[in-house]
């Protein structure tokens, strides 16, 4: 009986030891990076050793007892906290410093915001449907910034040249005219004066001995010129030419190849 109990205790001890060793090996995991990789970040400390933090740092208050160096920019706002002497703020119209129980302008303008403005004319409406203008003067004298209105929304209209090209025309900027083939303008367009292109033509009546019986339309290309002329067509003229009696005015029209149009 005593031997059985002894064997049982020995077996239990061995099993317990084996399980314990297995647990230790299973719970431990070796490092995945070479030193010093994987280390936790250094905490911000209170010691005298210099410390550099690569990330941002936000604090509710900050006191600097020594000198400071700013490599980037600094932005100053404005809040409702009762200021102390030496406080600096930006009001949206001026930079001010708090001194002697009052805010004093740091720019020498007295921090007076402009309330009245004179503007240039509005510029052309841009493709983003906005147009801008500039401030030419402001008041009262010596004021700064304020709230001038220098931009507004507008309805953008394609330039005439683009509209001309979109309907198959040919744009001539110096004439502000869009040319289309043939003799009529497309819908939404109308003739611009007599701008046209024509081939020349001469006409005459039966009795050609007198110049009034002949007319000529010179050819032209994209010019503001007419394309017709009138002449006398003689059918009879007693005393001059027995075969010419009577007369009538006739219009001679050149062949038009293009018409110049403008947008309605």
Brief rundown of the structure:
The chain contains two helices and 16 strands.
What does this 3D model show about the protein?
Among the domains are: 87-157, no CATH class; 160-263, no CATH class. The protein is mainly β and 264 residues long. The termini are far apart. The chain has helices at 2-27, 160-166; strands spanning 88-90, 95-99, 102-105, 116-119, 130-132, 135-139, 151-153, 170-172, 177-181, 189-199, 201-204, 214-217, 220-224, 228-237, 241-253, 255-263. The radius of gyration is 48 Å and the shape is elongated.
What is the CA-CA span between the terminal residues?
Answer: 122 Å
H/I helix tally: 2
Biggest β-sheet, characterized? 5 strands, antiparallel
Look at the helices and sheets and give the structural class: mainly beta
Counting DSSP E segments of at least 2 residues, the number of strands comes to 16
Based on CA inertia axes, which overall geometry fits?
A: elongated
| Run of helices and strands | HEEEEEEEHEEEEEEEEE
Query: Which spans have pLDDT < 50 for at least 5 consecutive residues?
Result: none
Strand line-up across the major sheet:
8-9-16-10-13
The amount of beta strand, in percent, is: 25-35%
Could you estimate the helical fraction of the residues in percent? 10-25%
How big is the Rg?
48 Å
Mean pLDDT: 77
């Amino acid at each position: 009986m005593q031997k059985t109990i002894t064997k049982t205790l020995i077996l239990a001890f061995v099993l317990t030891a084996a399980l314990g060793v297995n647990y230790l090996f299973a719970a431990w995991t070796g490092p995945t990076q070479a030193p010093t990789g994987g280390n936790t970040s250094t905490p911000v400390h209170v010691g005298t050793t210099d410390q550099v933090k690569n990330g941002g740092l936000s604090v509710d208050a900050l006191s600097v007892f020594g000198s400071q160096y700013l490599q980037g920019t600094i932005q100053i706002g404005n809040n409702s906290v009762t200021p102390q002497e030496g406080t600096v703020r930006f009001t949206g119209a001026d930079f001010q410093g708090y001194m002697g129980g009052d805010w004093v302008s740091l720019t020498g303008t007295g921090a007076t915001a402009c309330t009245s403005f004179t503007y240039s004319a509005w510029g052309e409406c841009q493709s983003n449907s906005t147009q801008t203008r500039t401030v030419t003067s402001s008041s009262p004298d010596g004021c700064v910034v304020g709230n001038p209105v220098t931009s507004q929304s507008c309805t953008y209209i394609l330039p005439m040249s683009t509209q001309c090209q979109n309907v198959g025309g040919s744009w001539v900027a110096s004439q502000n005219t869009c040319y289309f083939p043939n003799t009529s303008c497309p819908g939404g367009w109308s003739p611009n004066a007599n701008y046209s292109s024509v081939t020349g033509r001469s006409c005459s009546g039966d009795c050609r001995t007198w110049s009034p019986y002949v007319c000529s339309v010179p050819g032209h290309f994209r010019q503001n010129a007419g394309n017709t002329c009138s002449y006398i067509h003689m059918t009879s003229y007693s005393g001059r030419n027995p075969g010419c009696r009577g007369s009538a005015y006739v219009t001679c029209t050149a062949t038009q190849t293009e018409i110049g149009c403008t947008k309605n």
